[in-house]
């Protein structure tokens, strides 16, 4: 195990530059969550980094230290959005609602930041809406382009936004799903969105909600490519600092509980929804503007670890076979934090051919195609992307024929009906 050679000194808040002194949780050393191992050399060269989250005492942004630059994490990416049917349906529903609510049509310009493989923009293209995807991973962007979705391969920020404006592009609708957490330079990113947004345009962003992460002990949401973890309180401050007003917010079930925020220029024309004040007040009342509130999380995380290990050890003692379903980044955080290896989980499976035949980082659990489950007939199937448990249980319903049981690990191991 070879940790990074960079000094592990606490840095300053990536938004307000306040020194970071309060640790939210320390998950020990962990490899990059999407650094799947493809050969023996990769195992020998595997690197581990501290996975430690701080909370800012000024703006209450929860954040990680930056151990690896985004280019090393996202340059060649293993996650393809289109392999989740429920996520595709989520995207399709969003497109229909956005078009109706904001009058998006063939005369509009829609831009998605971190557009991945075109999972969302394809539904705008079907409606003859001009689109542009901005995606930093060359391998993922190539899939989108093959679908006929115009895609630029670059990281988004102020420089990209100014280049696009010089080319005559301004976005009527600017979208970012599960990208805000992945941005180390938040101020550059949000300023870029403000520059690219048309005067009456709308920004929608989705990201995991810190309140849900905290309340349900979703420790596996924390990994190195997620640089920041947002409450509504913190994200509202960040957008306001760049002349953007949040006029609406929705609480979504995706990724274990997410927010979808709606932003406009400060002189925008959309009225402020009551949901903005309601959520802000709920967070304040729950303690998210009080630094001491954050101290309780680490002990709860230890309880999650103890209970999962106890479940797996008991299954092993009884001679039960346990396998995993999925090879998500979040699962790699959980497995490494808990010290789980092939002694506990024989293998995992994943629908993505880009992951099959690899080993999970750190734990070295092998990844196979889903059909393997029907061959080995395990007693327990541990669902690592537990936020998709209903979709997965439906896909694997055949496993009930030999009495297999489905288990989710967060916030503690429990059977899924």
TrEMBL record:
Pfam families for the chain: Methyltransf_13 (PF08421), Methyltransf_14 (PF08484), Methyltransf_23 (PF13489)
Domain C-methyltransferase as annotated: residue spans: 253-411
One MF term in the entry's GO annotations: methyltransferase activity
Methyltransferase putative zinc binding domain residues: 13-74
Name this protein carries in UniProt: Class I SAM-dependent methyltransferase
PANTHER family: BLL5978 PROTEIN (PTHR43861:SF5), TRANS-ACONITATE 2-METHYLTRANSFERASE-RELATED (PTHR43861)
Record's keyword terms, sorted: Methyltransferase, Transferase
GO BP: methylation
């Amino acid at each position: 195990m070879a940790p990074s050679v960079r000094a592990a000194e606490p840095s300053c808040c990536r938004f307000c530059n306040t020194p970071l002194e309060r640790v939210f949780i320390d998950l020990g050393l962990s490899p990059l969550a999407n650094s799947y191992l493809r050969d023996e050399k990769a195992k020998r060269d595997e690197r581990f980094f501290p996975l430690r989250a701080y909370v800012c005492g000024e703006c209450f942004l929860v954040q990680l230290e930056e151990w690896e630059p985004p280019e090393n994490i996202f340059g060649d990416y293993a996650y393809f959005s289109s392999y989740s049917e429920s996520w595709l349906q989520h995207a399709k529903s969003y497109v229909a609602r956005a078009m109706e609510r904001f009058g998006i049509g063939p005369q509009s310009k829609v831009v998605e930041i971190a557009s991945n493989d075109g999972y969302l923009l394809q539904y705008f293209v079907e409606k003859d809406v001009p689109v542009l995807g901005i995606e930093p991973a060359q391998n993922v962007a190539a899939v989108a382009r093959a679908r006929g979705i115009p895609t630029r391969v670059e990281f988004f920020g102020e420089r990209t936004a100014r280049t696009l404006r010089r080319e005559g592009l301004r976005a009527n609708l600017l979208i970012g799903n599960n990208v805000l957490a992945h941005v180390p330079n938040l101020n550059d990113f949000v300023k870029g969105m403000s520059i690219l947004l048309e005067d009456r345009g709308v920004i929608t962003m989705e990201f995991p909600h810190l309140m849900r992460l905290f309340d349900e002990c979703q420790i596996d949401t924390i990994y190195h490519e997620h640089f920041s973890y947002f409450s509504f309180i913190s994200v509202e401050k960040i957008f306001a600092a760049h002349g953007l007003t949040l006029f609406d917010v929705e609480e979504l079930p995706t990724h274990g509980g997410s927010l979808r925020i709606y932003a406009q220029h400060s002189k925008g024309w959309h009225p402020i929804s009551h949901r903005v004040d309601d959520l802000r007040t709920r967070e304040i009342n729950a303690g998210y503007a009080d630094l001491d509130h954050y101290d309780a999380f680490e002990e709860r995380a230890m309880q999650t670890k103890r209970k999962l290990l106890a479940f797996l050890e008991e299954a092993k003692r009884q001679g039960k076979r346990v396998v995993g379903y999925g090879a998500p980044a979040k699962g790699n955080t959980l497995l490494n934090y808990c010290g789980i290896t092939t002694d506990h989980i024989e293998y995992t499976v994943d629908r993505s051919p880009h992951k099959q035949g690899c080993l999970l980082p750190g734990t070295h659990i092998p990844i196979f195609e889903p059909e393997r489950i029907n061959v080995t007939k395990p007693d327990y199937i541990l669902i690592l992307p537990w936020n998709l448990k209903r979709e997965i249980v439906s896909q694997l319903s055949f496993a009930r024929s030999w009495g297999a049981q489905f288990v989710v690990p967060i916030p503690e191991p429990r059977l899924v009906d």
